[in-house]
Automatic annotation (TrEMBL):
PANTHER family in UniProt: B-BOX DOMAIN CONTAINING (PTHR25465), E3 UBIQUITIN_ISG15 LIGASE TRIM25 (PTHR25465:SF77)
Protein name per the record: Probable E3 ubiquitin-protein ligase TRIML1 isoform X1
Any one GO cellular component localisation term in the record: cytoplasm
UniProt GO MF annotations: zinc ion binding
Gene3D superfamilies associated with the record: 2.60.120.920
Length: 348
């Protein structure tokens, strides 16, 4: 093949890649607008119901709207990240295309293009269909507000009722607990102790981080748990894949410090949401005695709430979970007696 023909072939290849990325960006933007439209329509429908019963339910309306808006923000954040990834790749292709057009005498071997495997991986990982609102939950929420009109005075807050309907039985697994944790006989709480417990060796046991996982795991549906953290000044809790590292000093073993887990951390008045080693400080000053964890596989969401006032704290939009999830708790060190209380799973 002549050098000029080779150059034209490279230019054609880059042009096709550019058009594919532009098409993906268009679809992502369209998906973003669709999410906004659906969220807006859902909020409007629910608000109309709340307006009819505003005298008794002003606080309940605030709770439901906050939850929906936070989940929308999580979805839009995820879409923004995918759009930024595609923009970055598109810019690289534009640079290569401009260089190819400007220097027709360059050596073909010096041109670097994205191979088809990487292209397929990019398009698969940024498929707009992976990002979606949890419409099943939203539809159920709207249905509950309709029912609430019929017996408004006798109902508990709608969002709380909906979430509690997703409550899942859970028991802690002693074989995963760090040797300085005592797991109760019922498997519903974990307490730190300075004494190293005489426990059998187990490959699934955490050996440096004070974590314990649940026996149960979940890979579909909606699930909700409440954790009692009253009297504590430090704790971590969240959800994780079984692949989270269990051994060694690396921070990967900590909840939320790697891609395998999602975590809410509290220390001395400060809340932080963690995932992938990135901390999200939360502007919250209230000390909650109960923390709720909501997981939606259809919506690809992990949401943390302050149960005391049903305050949404933070939502992660995962898109699609790649493995089953386990509940994970860390009661933290006793900090000279100031954090000696156990961390406990609440029963409904």
């Amino acid at each position: 093949m002549k050098e000029a023909d080779m150059e034209r072939s490279i230019q054609d290849h880059l042009t096709r890649q550019r058009e594919v990325i532009k098409c993906r960006l268009k679809k992502l933007t369209s998906k973003q607008n669709e999410i906004k439209s659906k969220s807006s329509a859902m909020r409007e429908s629910i608000v109309k119901k709340y307006e009819e019963m505003r005298k008794f339910l002003e606080e309940d309306c605030r709770i439901s709207m906050s939850l929906l808006e936070m989940e929308e923000m999580a979805v839009l954040r995820a879409l923004d990240k995918l759009i930024q990834t595609n923009h970055a790749i598109l810019c690289d292709i534009e640079v290569q295309l401009n260089e190819a057009m400007a220097d027709i005498h360059s050596q073909p071997g010096e041109m670097v293009t994205m191979n088809e495997e990487r292209m397929l991986e990019l398009l698969t990982g940024t498929d707009p269909g992976l990002i979606k609102l949890d419409e099943v939950k939203s539809d159920q929420l709207l249905g509950l507000t309709n029912n609430l009109l019929l017996f408004i005075r006798s109902q508990i807050p709608v969002a709380k009722r909906l979430l509690k309907s997703y409550s899942s039985e859970v028991v802690l697994d002693p074989s995963t607990a760090h040797p300085k944790l005592i797991v109760s006989s019922k498997g519903d709480c974990a307490t730190f102790t300075d004494e190293w417990q005489d426990v059998p060796e187990h490959e699934g046991r955490f050996d440096t981080t004070l974590n314990v996982l649940s026996i149960q795991c979940w890979n579909s549906g909606h699930h909700y748990w409440e954790i009692d953290v009253s009297g504590k000044i430090y704790w971590e809790l969240g959800l994780t894949y079984s692949s989270i590292p269990r051994r060694g000093q690396k921070e990967d073993c900590w909840l939320g410090r790697h891609a395998e887990s999602w975590c809410l951390e509290y220390f001395d008045g400060d809340y932080n949401a963690w995932h992938g080693g990135i901390s999200h400080p939360l502007p919250i000053s209230k000390c909650f005695s109960r923390i709720g964890i909501f997981c939606s596989f259809p919506g690809g969401l992990v949401t943390f709430l302050g149960v005391d006032s049903m305050t949404p704290l933070y939502s992660f939009c995962v898109g699609t979970f790649t493995d089953a999830l386990y509940l994970a708790l860390c009661p933290g060190h006793d900090l000279q007696g100031t954090n000696s209380k156990p961390i406990k799973i609440c029963q409904f």
